[in-house]
Amino acid sequence: MLLAGSFGGLWTQFQLSIDREIREDLLPESSGTDMDQAGGNRQHSVLGKTFHWGFIILYAYGIFKQIDDLEELEDSALLSFEIAFATVFLGIVMIRYSYMRRFETFMGATEPVPLAHRYLAKGIHTSMYLCLAMLPLSGLLIAGLFTQGVKDGPLQDFALGLHEMSASMSYVLIAMHVGAAIWSRVKGEGVWTSMVPILKEDRVSRNGLVTRISKLENEVFNRLENAFSSQKE
Fold first, then answer.
1. Could you tell me the residue ranges of all domains in the chain?
2. Burial degree of 156 (CB within 10 A; 0-12, 13-18, 19+)
3. Are 12 and 18 in contact (CB under 8 A)?
4. Which stretches within the chain are classed as H helix?
5. Cystine design at 163: which of 36, 74, 82, 138 (Cβ 3.0–4.6 Å)?
C-alpha cells in the first residue's frame, strides 16, 4: 500500500508538471516580427523540445546498436541490456505521446490549415508513435521467446517479422515527417520555428512558386474535405 501510494503521488506530481508545461506552451511569445503580429508564434515548451530532440538520439542509438544475429542473445549481459533498453524506450515513447498529443499538430502555424491536412498529419504522427511502440514491444517478445528456448520456428519468425516491419515503417514515416517539416519551413508558416532552434521563420514565404504550390496544396485538401463532408450528408 505504501509503495502504491508513493507511486500514485509521484504520478500526480508528474501530471501536474505536465499541465504547467502545457499552460506555458499555450502562451504566445512576444516579439516584433510579422509572424508574432499575426498571433501564431506559439513555441513548444522546453520539456516538449527535450522530448522531441532527446528521443531522436535514443532512436538513432537503438537503430545503430541493434543486433545482427539472434545468436548474439546467448550473451546474458547483452540480453539483459536489450530488455532494459527496450523497456526504457517503450516507457519514453508512452510518456512522450501522452505529453505531445495534447498539442495542436500544426503548433505555431500562422495560416489556416485545412481540416483534411490536419487529419493527415495527425494520422502520420499516430502511426509513427504506433511503430515506435511496436519496436520495443516486438523486441521484448523476441527476447522473451529466446529466454524460453524458442530460437526459431513460426513464433520467433512472427516476432522478428513484426520487429523488422515496425523498423521499416518507422523509417518511412519519419522521412515523411522530416520532409513535411522542411516543406513547412520553405513556406514559412511558423510550424518549423515552434520546435526547431535554427533557421527560424519571420514571415510567410512570398516566393511566387512556393505560394502557387501552397495554394494548390490547400485546394486539394479543401476538395478532399468537401468530398468527405458530402458523403456524410
1. 46-232
2. middle
3. no
4. 2-25, 34-37, 46-64, 76-100, 115-147, 154-187, 191-195, 208-232
5. 138
The pLDDT score that the predictor gives to residue 230 is 74
Chain length of the chain: 233
* pLDDT over 70, % of the chain: 82
Gap between the Cα atoms of 125 and 176, Å rounded? 10
pLDDT tens digits, one per residue of 168-187: 999 999 999 999 999 999 99
pLDDT > 70? residue 207:
yes
pLDDT tops 70 at residue 211: yes
Whole-number Å distance between alpha carbons of 200 and 182: 12
| pTM (predicted TM-score) | 0.76
What residues contact residue 89 under an 8 Å CB cut-off, 6+ apart? Answer: 58, 62, 135, 136
Least confident of 25-29, 67-71, 76-80, 202-206: 25-29
User: Alpha-carbon distance 197 to 42, whole Å?
Assistant: 13
CA–CA gap between residue 125 and residue 59 (Å, rounded): 16
Report whether 196 contacts 181 (CB < 8 A): yes
Three-state DSSP at 102 gives coil
CB 43 within 8 A of CB 124: no
